Amino acid sequence: MEPPQRKLPFLVLLLHLLSASCVSNPKTTVSWCVISDAEQQKCMDLSGNATARNIRGTLQCVRGLNTRDCMDKIKNGTADAASMSADDIYAAGLCYGLELAAGESYNGMDGVSYYVVAMARRSSSDLSLLEMHERSSCHPGIRTTVGWTVPIGYLVNTSQISVGEQCNFPKAVGNFFGYSCVPGVKDPQHDPRGNNPKNLCEACIGDDNDRHICANSHRERHYGEAGALRCVAENLGDVAFIKHTTVFDNLDGKNMESWALDLEVEDLKLLCPDGSEAGLDEYERCHLAAVPANGVAVRMEDKCRVWKYLERLQTAFGNATGGFSMFSSAGYGEADVLFSDSTHHLQRVLGSYTTWLGPTYITALQAFECEGFC
Q: Average pLDDT of each block of 10 consecutive residues along the chain (374 residues)?
């Protein structure tokens, strides 16, 4: 008597079919959507080097006006793929029905680009992320993932902030915190009517001559990751919303400014979403969101085909010690051209874009649904 045949789980069978589907796909050209001169040049260089190495398939470079235009081009078939950041991946999936063929992987952090953490002085013993009303805050910038989307999304989702029917986030944030530094919040593009609360700039200090206060640039000394850290270090804010790497990037002589030279790891702590606190090295369990790495957006039917081509490219140019390197932007006048410079390798994305983005990040984005993504 023959043993009964084992039935493959449906998901395994589906993935097997998807993997096999590109084998018979006659299309050998991958059209890549680029949005800058640097991206276009690197795309052309990658294409030329691939041809010279006789790599199967052809890379074609298609110019898009911006990321949204690339999404549209991929959807309508005039392009096949484009590299996108986490926010754009969400919009590409939600608004254009796109998926991911591949995602960037950094050393030891598969699928995660960085963690957004809430950092405070250890001496602030009465601080809790569940009771932030009337406290002071330091943000790298308006409308940034670290300084705005993730922390404000958290505060909305924990019912600490309510934006109401007007969906006015700056007003709600200004009413919630006692005072803050949110660089760029008074810029015309973010505040065309000049109505955003003034207290969102009260923890800002401008430049050495007290000019450019709250500017959306490094002329404001509390701008960016290091600026938000400085804001807390100088006792001008209770909490800074920063990347988990920001503190370590500014310690041990890496930043020679006086405020950084006086900073010690022992002086700081992380505030956790459940109201507790943790050490700076405990960011994997104590963070507001794990921000996913960049990925390559495609049409669903091209997931396998584009991945197979990328796999061949990175085998040839992924860890090149000499000659062309697809994960280096040296010589292009910009950082992170086509792919992040910190990319160790590309990994295949078998699941959906929502799986790649992860629950904490998607939950933060969903808090802004009243503003509209599409």
A: 44 46 71 96 97 96 97 98 94 97 85 93 91 96 94 96 92 97 95 94 96 95 95 96 92 87 90 96 95 96 96 91 88 92 93 94 93 86
State whether 102 and 141 are in the same domain.
no
Q: Output Rg (C-alpha) for the chain, integer angstroms.
A: 23
DSSP string, 209-221: TS-STT-SSTTST
Instruction: Please tell me the distance from the alpha carbon of residue 155 to that of residue 109, in angstroms, as a whole number.
Output: 27
Q: Domain check: are 56 and 159 in the same one?
A: no
Q: What does the pLDDT read at residue 265?
A: 87
User: Is pTM beyond 0.90 here?
Assistant: no
**Number of residues that this document lists for the chain:** 374
Pair (259, 134) in one structural domain? yes
Domains in the chain: how many in total? Answer: 2
Distance CA 263, CA 228 (A): 14
Distance CA 319, CA 327 (A): 8
Residue 8 has what pLDDT?
A: 43
Judgement on whether residues 269 and 338 belong to the same structural domain of the protein: no
Owning domain of residue 174:
112-290
pLDDT at residue 362, rounded to an integer: 94
Specify whether 71 is located in the same domain as 161.
no
The encoded tokens of residue 68 equal 């949204």
Element (H, E) at 49: helix 37-52
Sequence-distant contacts of 214-222: CB under 8 A, at least 24 apart: 214/181, 214/182, 214/183, 214/184, 214/185, 214/186, 215/183, 215/184, 215/187, 216/141, 216/142, 216/183, 216/184, 216/187, 216/190, 217/183, 220/181, 220/183, 222/138, 222/181, 222/183
Kind plus residue range of the DSSP H or E element containing 242: strand 239-243
Give the position of tokens 């590109």.
Answer: 22
Check whether residue 248 and residue 123 sit in a common domain: yes
Q: Of 293, 327, 332, 287, whose CA–CA distance to 310 is shortest?
A: 327
